[in-house]
Amino acid sequence: MRPFPLLGSVLVVCVSTVMAHAAGSAVSSRAEPEEAQLPAVDPAWRARGWHAVVPHAYVLRKLLAVRTAPAPDAPIAFHLKGGTRVPVVEQGQKWWRVTWTHGRSGWVPALDVEPHAAVVLLDTHTGKVTRRLAAKGQWGAVSDGKALWSIADTGITRTSLGERPEFWSRKVAAGRDAVFPNRSLWGPERSSFYLRAVDEESGALLRADVATGEVRTLGTPPLGTLVGQTRTGDLLLRSMAGGKDRTHLYSPQLQRTLRRVSGKALAISRSGITYLQRDDELIRTSPGLQATRRVQLPTSIMGLCLSADQRYVAASYELSANDESRVEIRIMDAASLRTVVTLKLPQDNYSPYVHHMGTWSGGWWIAASGEGNTETVIRFRKSGKVLRVDDGGSPVAVSADEKAIFLANDEQILALNTATGTRRTIPLSWRRKLPTAYLPKPSAPDFPTHLVLSSLTLTPDGKTLIITEWLSGDPEG
Hints:
Elements: H1 6-24, H2 43-47, E1 50-52, E2 56-59, E3 63-67, E4 76-81, E5 85-91, E6 95-99, E7 105-109, E8 113-115, E9 117-123, E10 129-134, E11 142-143, E12 148-152, E13 155-159, E14 167-170, H3 180-183, E15 185-186, E16 192-196, E17 205-209, E18 215-217, E19 225-229, E20 235-241, E21 244-251, E22 256-262, E23 264-268, E24 274-278, E25 281-285, E26 291-296, E27 303-306, E28 312-321, E29 324-333, E30 339-344, E31 353-360, E32 363-369, E33 375-381, E34 386-391, E35 396-398, E36 404-408, E37 412-417, E38 423-427, E39 451-458, E40 464-471
Antiparallel strand pairs: 1-14, 2-5, 2-8, 3-4, 5-6, 6-7, 9-10, 9-40, 11-12, 12-13, 13-14, 15-16, 16-17, 17-18, 19-20, 20-21, 21-22, 23-24, 24-25, 25-26, 27-28, 28-29, 29-30, 31-32, 32-33, 33-34, 35-36, 36-37, 37-38, 39-40
C-alpha cells in the first residue's frame, strides 16, 4: 500500500537520501560525542585520571531514522546510512541513543545496530538473558560484584550496570586485543587487581582499587606472567630465560624480587603453597618458595591444577609408546603428593592440558583442553573408569566452588553440574542474522565478519554468566 502518490514517494525518498548523505556520507566518519553528551565522572575518579568513554556500533539498515525520543512515533532528528559506525552514549532495553556530527544525538532501536563488542548477562539458574550491552573491551570482562572491568583501546575500563550504563577509562595498559580475564590477577575479595602495563609478561606492575579508582605503579618486576598471590600479599611470576623456567617471588610493597628459583610455577593454593615443575619433577613449596615435597613423574607436566577444596592436585602428562600417545592424569594428595589414583583419558580424546578438577559422590571429574583450545569435561568413577565425556567448545567458565562449568561454542552454551552430573544446553537466543552488507569489511575474503564469543566469566556469587562477543575482522576498537 502506498500512502502517497508516486511523485510524492519519489520526493520523500530524495529528501531522505539528502539527509542521509549529510549525516552518514562516509562509513569511516568519526563523530565522537562532546563532553556535555557524556555521563559525568565522579570527581574523585576524574582527579585520578578517569574519563568517560563510549562503545560503538554499526548501523544495520540501509537508511536508519534517528529519533528525538525512544519511541517509534517520535520526530526524526536525522538519518544514518547502513554500515555507519556511531558512538553509543546511552542504552535502554530496546532503544539506544547515538551521537553524530555537530553535537547531534538521537535514539535508534537497539536491534537496528550491532556493537563492535557486546556483553551479555545471563542468569545461570534459568539460562535467561537479563541484559545485553554494547561494551568496551572485546576480549572479556570481569565482575567485582558491582561493576565490570575490562581492557580496551582506551585503557583500563570500568562499566557500571545501572539503568544508564557508564563507561570510565584510564589510559593505562590500553590494548584492543588484551585478554583481561587472563591478564589480571584479582585479590580474594575482588577489591583490587594487578596487571602488567605493557602486556602479559612485561611492563610496570599496576594495582587498581575497584572502590576508589586509584591505580598505583608498584615497580617493574622481572619479565614474567603473574601466577598468584600469597597470604602476605607477595606475587608469584613465571618466566623463561635461556630456555629455562624461573619462578619469582615479588613484593609489591618493597617493589623488588624476594626470591627466585628454577622451575615453572603451575599453581598456588589459597594459603600460598606453590606447586612448580622442574624437568619431570613436581615440587611443593612453602609460601617462601622453599621445597617441602617432591615427586617424580613419568614425563614433563602439561597441565596442573588444585581442587576447589585444596585437598587434591591433578597433573596431566603425555606418554608415548609404539608410535601411539595417551594422556594420563595423576590425582595426588595436595599435602603429601602421594598418588591417589591415575586417570587414563580415552584413546579418542586428546585433551592434555588439565586446568580444573574435583570430586563428586561417585568419583572424579576433570576439565581439560586440547588442540584448538577445545574444552572437554570427563567424569570418572573412583576406580578411574571413564563414565562420561562432554566435549564443549571454548571459552569456559567455572564457578568458585567448581560445582558448575559453562562451555561455549558458536551454537550454544553447555552447562554442567559437577556434583550431580546433570547437563543442559543454553541457546544463544540473543543472536540474530546480521546483514553482511553493513558489517565491517573482513580482513580476508575467506573469513567473513561474524560474531565471535570470546570470553565467559562469572560474577563472584556465581548467579550471572558474563558473555563477551565481538565482530571479527573489525579494525576498530
